[in-house]
Amino acid sequence: MNRINFKFARTVCAASLTALTFVSAVQAQTTAPTVPTPAMPAMPKGMMGSDGMKQSMMTGMDSMQKMPMTGDTDKDFAMMMKMHHQQAVDMAHMELKDGKSPAMKKMATQIISAQKKEIAMFDKWLAKAK
Q: pLDDT tens for residues 113-127?
């Protein structure tokens, strides 16, 4: 690619990124917050579907943020990834319960299988690392 074409491509990419950032910022400011109000009560525990998936993700992120770090990178990685994988399993179960797409249900089944194996590997490693 010659120098002029490279500069043009870089300018187009930068302009696109700037536009996307601006649109995201505007959307964030104009999107109604999802804070419970009297008209929209807090979600009941165990809610499924898209709202349940979002709640599951938010709960998992909150738990990971509150998790005390040991200072041992390997242990912290294993503990946080285990929690992260469990959130994927929980969301996949919600897909199996409420989803409609056979392709997504198949993907959810594969995720459950793979993530449970990795959770077991983290558990095994953590048991030895005590």
A: 999 999 999 999 999
